[in-house]
Fold this sequence. Notes:
Layout: H1 9-12, H2 19-28, E1 32-38, E2 41-42, E3 54-60, E4 63-70
Parallel strand pairs: 1-3
Antiparallel strand pairs: 1-2, 3-4
Amino acid sequence: MINKIHGEPHINKIIGMTEKEAIDQLKKIDKTMRVVNRDGASIMVSGMNDNMNRVNVFVSNGVISNLDGLG
């Protein structure tokens, strides 16, 4: 199952893009990206620095495979 962010079609469309394409797309809407899982391995992130302009993503083989919300 692919996670998407409810009510955010302009963000959800990065699923399937390469990391570079996703970064460029998000920049257009004043968002940044943080990889929280790469190829099945979780990446430690701090909950203390939530940023609602940042999209948390899963990357598989260089492609955005899933979204894990904003923050």
